[in-house]
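Most newcomers find our protein records easier to grasp once they have seen one. To make this concrete, we reproduce a full record directly below:

===
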Amino acid sequence: MSDLRLDGMALADGVVETIVGIAMGTVEGAVLSGGAASLLAALGNKGAIQPIEVKANENNTLSIGVHVEAVYGTVLPELAARIRQTVSDAVLTQVGVEVSDVDVYIDGIQFVS
């Protein structure tokens, strides 16, 4: 993604992804796929698998995709709903832009001992 332009504002690469990544740290039962190293690689290297994808829509909203690993025993539909709400709230609060949809991709299950 190059500079994101929404409603008269330009955001540098990685700003929304960073906000989403930090917000995801507050969601119990999920971690971004690949961990922190994957997030840093996604922000700096376009060839890496990106745990967070952001796309601007024509109506000045954002579509966001989040790749996570769920903690074993977490109810997946409830987890996806928490992720959608947390991501939408964080972006709206910090950027002032509505999120039209948050696609949640469960890439794996983590077994915590």
Observations:
- The chain has a mean pLDDT of 86.
- The two ends are 38 Å apart (CA to CA).
- Helices lie at 15-24, 35-44, 76-95.
